[in-house]
Write a structure and sequence with these properties.
By secondary structure, the chain is mainly α. Helix content is 76%, strand content 0%. It is built from 14 helices and no strands. The longest helix has 44 residues. The structure holds aspartic acid (ASP).
């Protein structure tokens, strides 16, 4: 903390402490999108991306198509670069753990263990308590039966750390074991793999608070609310690949006035946390698919919640 607190003070003085108020909303609309991107002003970048995306849907298809193809290509290339960097990550992580422990001693290791325990407890509550309640209340299906049937998906997500790599297994399980019709599974699950990341959002929230604490930065209530909003928004933008949320998390930290480089402290643990957070990410997608199938009146292959109002069958047996 001594090493970094000077830097943290400088950051705070740069004015990010007063960023959260009416001005936050005003600053979302950038004067210059390129400079906003260069300064990693995340909300402005997301705002411009949204406006640009909406505009693309409103111009003739043949004009929008080439732009989409270029953007797709740029996205692929950047994902490739991230993939290449991730190849050397195991060695880099070993070096990071070594230098962190050598400089800070065992004390930091104990701190990191409690941080990891906090993330894992949060993920476990979300995975088994929150989803069970949603499945029972909204989908009216038996959560135990659901979790039993999606075990292969959870195992694949855990071992690959990637929502995208788990997608084929998710689609097959949804169609064959849960009874979600292909037209719903084929739409909801790919969308969910890219946009719906419950575990990632939770992890980002805990990590922001943790890194801010390490740097001795106290977060106001407004900043904590901003962490929630930014974590959810950036989790939507995170790629469904191993470590896909790390670059975005750094931007969230910078937006809050916490040095983005502080992420180095947790990188040593990230792979295991990544494996664990990818499980709720894909479980959330499957829960949504089951919910949509239920609202569409499809006959699901899941046991209904006994004794719940409206649980006479888990679906209406759509033709
Ligand atoms: N590995 C996560 C996923 O694919 C993304 C992340 O949180 O880094 O869902």
């Amino acid at each position: 903390m001594q090493t970094y607190s000077g830097e943290a003070d400088d950051r705070k003085k740069e004015g990010s402490g007063e960023l959260f108020g009416v001005n936050t909303i005003v600053h979302i609309v950038p004067r210059n999108p390129i400079s906003a991107a260069a300064k990693t002003e995340l909300l402005s970048v997301i705002f411009i991306a949204l406006v640009f995306g909406v505009a693309l849907t409103r111009i003739p298809r043949e004009k929008a198509r080439p732009v989409e193809q270029v953007l797709d290509g740029v996205n692929e290339a950047i994902m490739k670069i991230v993939g290449m960097v991730m190849e050397i990550a195991p060695y880099a992580v070993a070096a990071l753990i070594f230098s962190t422990t050598a400089r800070f001693g065992w004390g930091i290791v104990a701190t990191l263990v409690s941080y990891a325990a906090c993330v894992l407890t949060g993920l476990a509550i979300h995975q088994f308590v929150v989803f069970s309640i949603l499945l029972a209340l909204l989908c009216r299906v038996n959560p135990v039966d659901f979790f039993r049937k999606i075990t292969p998906v959870m195992v694949t997500a855990f071992s690959t750390s990637s929502s995208n790599a788990t997608l084929p297994t998710s689609i097959r399980t949804a169609e064959e074991d849960l009874g979600v019709p292909p037209e719903i599974a084929g739409f909801v699950l790919p969308l969910g793999a890219t946009m719906n990341m419950n575990g990632t959002a939770l992890f980002e929230g805990v990590t922001c608070v943790f890194v801010a604490q390490v740097f001795g930065i106290s977060l106001s209530l407004g900043q904590q609310a901003a962490i929630i909003v930014l974590s959810v928004i950036t989790a939507v933008g995170a790629a469904g690949v191993p470590g896909g949320s790390i670059p975005l998390l750094m931007m969230v930290l910078e937006t809050l006035g916490v040095p983005g480089g502080g992420i180095a402290i947790i990188l040593g643990f990230d792979r295991i946390l990544d494996m664990c957070r990818t499980v709720p990410n894909v479980t959330g997608d499957l829960t949504c698919a089951v919910f949509i199938a239920r609202t569409e009146g499809c006959a699901l292959k899941l046991e209904p919640m006994q004794g719940w109002p409206g649980s006479a069958g888990s679906g209406g047996g759509r033709e």
